[in-house]
């Protein structure tokens, strides 16, 4: 009996209509929404565990189960209808992930891998042990720990070990007094050196259960106030050596941790040119949304291929450059056009750009969509995607960031 | 009050969650399925009127209404929940399309335009009156009409005026006797000259309500037994003049008929190099499936843009060539791998190709998916897509068409 047969036998059920295994994603955000979009081409219909019927993916997927990702009962009931379980976010309690696997469900990435995207302390310790470059860091139990770590050199960066994203759970502090309010919230903290940054990069790869790896080009993630506003693919002006080093780090992390699916490794490029690993995500990631148009295989399709144990698709680029700009909802001025009118105007002004809207209510600062452009002129793509995303966010060209 | 405001006011409802108009598509086939996929990026969730929950689009869309496209009551109830109504096929009775518009629903393409894709006789008469090139033809009331039309030169082609597709409703006949069984079925017939063919082409365009047009490059549609097996984009070796003529014909048809949405004009390229219009379709069409990967704007997104009255997206190519091969279900030999295993093997062998599966039961001859490749090497793309589609159809590489 070959490996292929063994694999088929191990699948729980297969969808009786399509004859294909059923993938379930825990979380109903935009990543699940775009994964469902990719799933359709593969003959699939993504099953989604969503917290409410208004969540981004729940608005477009047929197979939506309502439930709490923090409830083991909800997770187990959801898993019972799936051949493979995967995740739209890192918020499922690690003990539940472990229990699902113990109950016989196929969970990918597995609990041991996923923990490194859920717990920054575990991640820092493991990567350090592997000899991979990470910022200088220390656990924090008290304000004194931070003071000792800083050793007079301020500011330093305090981070929540769990649960932070998009700039949340990260604080730049300039004295021990500033640490006090962060303690005692029940969230363990760590402290890191403030890295002298040239820019931030991301190396996004995918890994299959058999260990096949595929890497998209390393990208630059342009940050504003701790939130990624744009992604430039490939990272402009990056040397072949540095790009290769970033890819090597990402593939090594994927392999050592046994990741299955997409792995995004957020990197600092220090002013002296060295790379340090900042964060890990084990799911489709904002820094690779550009792959929908810019690569032969999108990160969403690739994540599905990996968790379905299909060989990975080609990550080759289809254009010299791709630029993605996030649409961060603004406060539309009085009388600003509604979303429908904004898409209308955007289409007229930028017929070459691709719009992605997530169906989310536009609370200020919330990521409600993105805009991607591909082509040969990087400067024009940066300008156009920034202008289009800014316009979509507020309906006001005055707030457009150039 | 500007045109924009008037337009917004004319929309029935807007989805309360997304603030966007609701598009409803009548018909739950693969075209609706892929239109839903494109709709997701535009912040939409396509509403689908499907005949059964097992139809291709019903397997993946959230907003599925079950009903019969031949029932006015079902159509009207469906339309009540939509801002715009459009179609996955031509089978809705023309009188129902007209009645829906009369009842105040926005129906795109409109009844007057759509009739030309539903009734070959109406289409032939109108195109002839416009001076556009069509095959020599005549209406058929009796076998004698066919005999008179042939005037001793056989074979000729008899076609059902309504309801034919994929080679159905088309008969090549070599005598009046062969016509007899086709009469009296209640379907009006017409007869056409058998055109001496170099090849078949398709010119696919889109037109917005404001009259904006956008054309993808003219493609070659490779036929076998009256069914399109592959599409080559752009049509290999086509002269700039002929390509321009084909595009001009398609844009003129779209304008003269007042089409809104995608219009596919199937063309014969005669052995003497002249073009003749064969068929019209006013919806996304098999001959433009390649646009999903091969063009900046896919036909599915473009159809939505048009019916939503958004300015059209750029139809520019993203690669020198795109080739699409249809997956026509075969009769898998005993012990052939199942669909899941076939996708697995296909992915390993052809990581650069894109698979699209429609979730349809694989009855022999049925179109259950397609495979697309983009790149610079046309011959390799033809070979690989044909082999991959053949393998996906049967699980047997012996049946692969090269």
Automatic annotation (TrEMBL), chains A, B:
Keywords on record = ATP-binding, Ligase, Nucleotide-binding, Purine biosynthesis
Q: Name one GO molecular function term.
A: metal ion binding
Q: Name one GO cellular component term.
A: cytosol
Single biological process term from Gene Ontology: 'de novo' IMP biosynthetic process
Q: In which pathway does it act?
A: Purine metabolism; IMP biosynthesis via de novo pathway; 5-amino-1-(5-phospho-D-ribosyl)imidazole-4-carboxylate from 5-amino-1-(5-phospho-D-ribosyl)imidazole (N5-CAIR route): step 1/2
Q: What is its EC number?
A: 6.3.4.18
List residues binding ATP.
120, 159, 192-195, 200, 278-279
Instruction: Name the reaction it catalyses.
Output: 5-amino-1-(5-phospho-beta-D-ribosyl)imidazole + hydrogencarbonate + ATP = 5-carboxyamino-1-(5-phospho-D-ribosyl)imidazole + ADP + phosphate + 2 H(+)
Where does the ATP-grasp domain start and stop, copy by copy? 124-308
State a single Pfam family of this protein. RS_preATP-grasp-like
Q: Which family does it belong to?
A: Belongs to the PurK/PurT family.
What functional role does this protein have?
Catalyzes the ATP-dependent conversion of 5-aminoimidazole ribonucleotide (AIR) and HCO(3)- to N5-carboxyaminoimidazole ribonucleotide (N5-CAIR). Catalyzes the ATP-dependent conversion of 5-aminoimidazole ribonucleotide (AIR) and HCO(3)(-) to N5-carboxyaminoimidazole ribonucleotide (N5-CAIR).
Share what the entry says about its subunit structure, partners included.
Homodimer.
Which PANTHER family is this protein grouped with?
A: PHOSPHORIBOSYLAMINOIMIDAZOLE CARBOXYLASE, PURINE BIOSYNTHESIS PROTEIN 6/7, PUR6/7
Its recorded name reads: N5-carboxyaminoimidazole ribonucleotide synthase
Species whose genome carries this gene = uncultured Mycobacteriales bacterium
Q: Give the gene that encodes this protein.
A: purK
